[in-house]
Design brief:
The chain is of the alpha+beta class. The protein has a domain at 45-50 and 88-194: Sandwich (Immunoglobulin-like). The chain has four helices and ten strands; from the N terminus they run αββααββββαββββ. The chain has helices at 3-26, 53-66, 71-75, 144-151, and strands at 45-47, 50-51, 89-92, 100-106, 124-131, 138-141, 155-156, 162-163, 173-180, 187-194. A hairpin with a 5-residue loop joins β7 (155-156) and β8 (162-163). The N and C termini lie far apart (104 Å).
């Protein structure tokens, strides 16, 4: 092949390539593969399913005895602190084996809680975490720190001790507890009745 013919072939090839580039740039990207289905969700239950004010008061008396507080010291504390002496346990079955299960308390839109960024779509706070066994059963407890942070809405001092003067318990009402697996679509809910302050007189 002569040099002139080769030059023509190269020129035509480059022209065709340049014409193809805009078409390739406008081509739609390949659709992402479909997402696999979510693992099946199990169940979630809370014990006790209802915390009433009478129980909180009863547990406050136990809390005072447990801490060996003087009558003066006890009088300076709000009765809602009895929640710290009340065991709160979450259980569930039917979860994927060995899956971590995160237990959250959904906060109603009209309830303010520190650390909850609603501008980012957050609507809940983490209150416990457990791991399902080989049969898909899990249990978890609510630690005192979670009770102080989320049920009593307590601030903390620089000494990392709760500032009891700032206690502001969640309003009485029915709340939603949400359990999720590693895959956020694997979800179960249950309601929880909270009454940590004296109900309004009827």
């Amino acid at each position: 092949m002569s040099w002139s013919k080769l030059n023509k072939v190269i020129t035509i090839s480059i022209a065709l390539l340049l014409l193809a580039l805009p078409v390739a740039a406008c081509a739609k990207p390949a659709a992402p593969p479909p997402q696999p289905p979510a693992p099946p969700a199990g169940t979630i239950a809370v014990e006790p399913p209802k915390i009433d004010y009478a129980k909180v008061q009863e547990m406050f008396a136990f809390f005072v005895k447990l801490r060996n507080l003087s009558p003066q010291a006890a009088a300076a504390l709000p009765p809602c602190m009895g929640i710290l002496a009340l065991p709160v346990k979450f259980t569930g079955t039917g979860w994927p084996a060995n899956e971590m299960v995160f237990v959250d308390l959904v906060i109603p839109p009209d309830v303010e809680i520190k650390g909850l960024d609603r501008s980012r779509g957050e609507d809940s706070v983490g209150i416990a975490v457990g791991t399902a066994d080989s049969t898909g059963t899990f249990d978890a407890i609510m630690e005192a720190t979670a009770k102080l942070n989320w049920l009593l809405r307590t601030d903390w001092k620089p000494t990392v001790t709760p500032d009891l003067a700032t206690i502001k318990p969640l309003p009485n009402g029915t709340y939603t507890i949400r359990a999720t697996g590693i895959d956020q679509r694997t979800m179960a809910t249950v309601t929880w009745e909270l009454e940590m302050v004296a109900p309004a007189a009827k």
